[in-house]
Amino acid sequence: MKIAVLPGDGIGPEVTRSAIRILAEVGEMAGIQVDLTEHLIGGTAIRETGSPFPDETASACVASDAVLLGAVGDPAFDNSKPEERPEKGLLRLRKALGGFANLRPSRAYESLIGSSPLREDVFRGTDLLIVRELLGGLYFGEPRGTSDREAFNTMRYSTAEVERVACVAFEAARVRRGKVTSVDKANVLETSQLWRRTVDKVAKGYPDIKLEHMFVDACAMHLVTNPKGFDVILTENLFGDILSDEAAVLTGSLGMLASATIGGNIDLYEPVHGSAPDIAGKNIANPLGAIASVAMLFRYSAKNESCAKAIDDAIDRALSEGYRTVDIAKDGCRVVSTDEMTDIIARYAVENAGASRAYHAV
Fold this sequence. Notes:
The chain is α/β, with parallel strands linked by helices. It folds into two domains: 1-99 and 270-362, Isopropylmalate Dehydrogenase (3-Layer(aba) Sandwich), CATH 3.40.718.10; 117-250, Isopropylmalate Dehydrogenase (3-Layer(aba) Sandwich), CATH 3.40.718.10. 43% of the residues lie in helices and 18% in strands. It is built from twelve helices and 14 strands. A ten-stranded mixed sheet has the order 2-1-3-12-11-4-5-10-8-9, with helices on both faces. The chain has a two-stranded antiparallel sheet with strand order 6-7. A two-stranded parallel ribbon has the order 13-14. Helix 1 (12-30) crosses helix 10 (288-300), helix 10 runs antiparallel to helix 11 (305-320) and helix 11 (305-320) crosses helix 12. The longest helix has 24 residues, at 338-361.
């Protein structure tokens, strides 16, 4: 596999280092050759090239089998024009790769029950997947504009855009627990009314899947009062951005969450967290979101469930044995650095991958 690696800004290079180590070692154990090339994006790219998404990076990404991203964002550019901010590089990357469905799993690790502010009876047993439409809505809609006294953005969706992401959600539900919750604001937004009608149409092709509709404000409430009631959450770009970050409370930290962007020519994998410049370079960032993103890379791009499970199980084991980075630490646990957590996951994942390969060989 040819993988383009974009470490990005802040803690991005640190967690990406962890991710590519797991990717390389587990891939080697499974007999998968991994060719990694590193490229610039975000604030780092602006400083070196003047662009948040240089042409060289774009060319390398579209020539790869998958892209692994660290994080994008630098407060030094907070007052720059929108087109000159690091985050613009991320939007251009997504558009270049063509991935329209962002998958963000969130589940309750039994060993992290104490890390969530939710009550144990509310939190325990949660296992959901947010499927977020990624190339439409307010982030990409035209026209848009700004002046000294006003600004405007356009939320725009076509039936084709809704249909394709809805199919991803229904297919995901088929291998999970068979339920899709479509989230919109159909009581006030015409785009949401189109969204709801289109999802209803797609649902007719999936009679085995239960569909429910929910307004986004109600969904935000139910995510923290009854998260176990969700299986697959399907929603548009802006709502999905907000709800998936809210879902981080279920794991106790944004550092735990992985994501995959699929549907285009090239798939993109990245942890959900931001660049966290305040802790960059301190070797305390949580690498588990980035490492779990590698598991998703094996699952969706390499089509290798054994490697994906080897990594997921390694994370479970490390957490159950009490290893924690500072963001999820609690009394009585073993607090470790970014590098130490990576060492532990690498050891367990390679053991798992080796055992799985031996089993299949037999």
